[in-house]
Amino acid sequence: MWRRVRNNRQAQWILVVAMLLALCLASLLVGARSVPVSTVAKALLAYDANLAEHIVIHDYRLPRTLLALLAGAAFGVSGALIQATTRNPLADPGILGVNAGAAFFVTIAVGVFGLQSIDIYLWFSFLGAILATLAVYALGVFGQGGGSPVRLVLGGVAVSAVLGGIGSSLTLFNPRAFDGMRSWSIGSLAGRDIDVAITVAPFILVGLAIALAIGRSLNAIALGDDLARSVGANVTRTRVMAAIAVTLLAGAGTAAVGPIGFIGLMIPHVARWIVGPDQRRIVATTLVLAPSLLLTADIIGRILLHPGELEAGIVTSFLGAPVLIMLSRRRNAGGP
Prior knowledge:
The protein has about 325 residues and is an all-alpha fold. The chain contains 15 helices and no strands. It has helices at about 1-30, 35-45, 50-85, 100-110, 120-140, 150-175, 175-180, 180-185, 195-215, 215-220, 225-230, 235-255, 265-275, 280-305, 310-330. The radius of gyration is 20 Å and the shape is globular.
């Protein structure tokens, strides 16, 4: 029996990893210019700067593929952490306003201070993620009746709406400064060079390492705070570590590709459906599935409007909105 379960899990892992690798290859192949697999291999292994097809692969498609891997993992795992720590199945960085806070402060960095380098406005993104998290937590916890998952969601939606409205107003005051960030504000992988991926990678990798390290404690928190303490888990330390990880992941992901929503909502539910309620396995599976979703959205966007493209943030919204409606209508929404 145990051997059969283990074999099934190994088969699932092989399947999801193979799917991710296939999507990475498709991301390198699909685009306005058709490129064969042999040319992709040569561009990666024997790059020739005099060949236009090598430049397309090396300078455009490889960076956006790496960004999809990094940002997808960041948004997905941050959603899994928020759902686990709040025990709220409808939570994710987008719905709880974390992405909106990061995006709003990037807007301030560009529109008010004229900053254009990701090395600098990445820190504004982190600050926005932290302040938005605190604001939503305060709205959801304090006040008459105490805290509840519904109040957290409503607080997140309210903060997202307010910050989105103010951010849009800023772009109208100084449209020239935001011309280059129009696709970023929607959520897009296009037009990013390899330096963006290199800049955000250390922060995302640290956030992912923290998420994997606190998996056992997240399992204890899923039982409730009192039971978690009774089995020796440090609830406060786990939540602080989770908050740090969410800030790093959502802040760096948003700074790199814009405020792409729904990945952190959908993928942890899919992972929970595949591997069960163990938070360690949910985080590990989300780490593979979330980049697959972002790569899929990006590839679909390139195919739908060929030779142009539709931003990945719009495609994920089309996919995520029905999922959110389905989850909200379920009696047992598959909570952590």
